[in-house]
Amino acid sequence: MEILQGLARGLMHTFEPWTMLMMMIALVGGIILGAIPGMTGSMGIILLLPLLYHLKLGPALVTLAAMFCGAMYGGSISAILLRTPGTPSSAATVLDGHPMAQRGEAGVALSIALIASVAGGLFSGLCLIFLTPPLARFALEFRAPEFFTLAVFGLTIIAGASSKNILKGLITGVMGVFISRVGVDEIWGVSRYTFGTNFLMSGLSLLPVLVGLFALSQIFYDLPGAIRGEETIKQNIGSILPSRAYMKRIAGPILVGSVIGTIIGIIPGTGGAIACFLAYDLIKRFHKNKDQWGTGVPEGIAAPESANNGTTGGALVPMLSLGIPGDAVTAVMLGALMLLGVRPGPMLFVEDMESIYTLFSAFMLMQLIILALGLGGIKIWPRVLDVPQRILMPLIVVACFLGAYTLANNLNDVMTALIFGVIGYFMRKYDYPAPPLILGLILGPMTEENLNRALLVSEGSWSFLFDSIISTGFLVVSVISLVVPILTELWKRYRSLRPAGASR
Amino acid sequence: MHPKIDFISGIVLMVFSVAAHRMADRLPPVPKGLGPGDYPKVIVTILFILGLILSGNAYYTARKKSWEGKKSYAKEEFKQVFLLVLCIAVYIKLVGYMGYLYLTPFFVFAMMYLYGLRTWVKMGVISLVTGVFTYVLFNNYLYVLLPRFNLF
Predict the structure, then answer these.
(1) Is the Cβ of B108 closer than 8 Å to some Cβ of chain A?
(2) DSSP strands (E only) in A159-270
(3) 10 Å Cβ neighbour count for B120?
(4) Of A428, B1, B41, B75, which residue is least crowded by CB atoms under 10 Å?
């Protein structure tokens, strides 16, 4: 009952003109950015930052979530029409979405993606509403040892978040922790690694690092392709609504995809890219005509699209209740909220529950708006793909400048963003994932401060790690989440090195 | 895989870790709890180990395959990126003197040129509109004081 009343109040806040306007801007912007290959929800959030500074927490949360959901849906547009996923989360949609478009059913494929996205979003929204408050209440019991082990757990998910190269993921993650420790030590007031400069006394701000790693590095990376003016063949939209037979076929995959996506989203360190392939693979495995997959079956669009949108609400659960990001986009979102002076976590539910309810209500409402925007603009959104990158990219560079500058009206922050843009460019070139660095930057202070506090209380004894079942539990899960991906990777290498037939 | 780059990166990481460890060593000790240098020392020790594994792994791969690995970029691509970075760096350095309103149109124009656009009128209009629109939006509505002309 309390939840329903809260949701009703949240809905009223959502309908306030400023909140609605920001939500619409973020949704439309998210769909556009998501549709452009290479642009992601993370970049969208960074581009929104100058506007976020002027918002209260409720509208800011709604704006961030709208960008996240909009970009997630937008990614399917280019996946279906261009065979290039707009975001990594739409990679599996390409497999059946594009063949369907080539068959002259681009409009139907886009509609299926839209329906599945909205269904996945609604399902994950319900989980967000009903799972987050109890989890936050549970987390209110946490003291320094629990927060320390929780942060350690957050850091160990780096291994899972960097599935392409665990070693490099760990390096960037640990480097993120190191960078977060530059500046004056919070407890003893001693300067560390500042080299006598005033600029580094308060540490490196998160925002310029985010702008550099996620936005500028992408621009540098895409530059050669944009200069070449790579052309792509687009499809005719054709009819829009899927037939009743198609609707019957996609109902099951949508449900399964939504559940998978939400669960994957809740697990920190995962994300839409994993969820979409998992859902695609699972539905395919149990499908009676497996050999038709890859030729444009509607289930092959419905399953991944519902799964990747399912991760949106799921990923917000640990971010809001524990302050641990569920995926790369929520890591950037967490950083953006910290810039507004808000630290997501259990205390947020005590201090500003109204803003949380506003987010919950708006999250459900924005799914319906995506449905309306998607159906209404099914012939318009693909035109986004006509905007030449040669014009778009310079405008994004200006937006990056403004985003980094508005933090403190300081050009040093913009230069920091540029430096991290170059670092991010080389990281991309040499397969060093960027999200672990952000995780390290966010969780680094949390680990040191809570470890120090716990050690001071326990008078230097490390037994605090095993004094409560929660901290012991987090430690065990940390070890598992660190060791399992490493062992899996080693096993894969062993299998690939072993000559064929050696097992016999 | 980029064995050569990975090998060098691992070495650089180890050197960096040793230097950072020595700097942390110079920080004052404390009677109770973690001192200001203790936590960074743990972090850089982990970094050193990871650097060692990276170099070792790269060396092992190179011996089995080759040192070069896959080619990451052509020289031309690198030159283009360098020019863009230079363009942005010069803009950041100059904008404090020339002012956002006056310099941004030229900056946007230069970037579009760098991206290969050659439709002069279109480029001029977009550059001007971008500079003026963002200046008015941020200065007058979002109350962000953008850099002003400060040369004289």
Answers:
(1) yes
(2) 183-184, 191-192
(3) 11
(4) B75
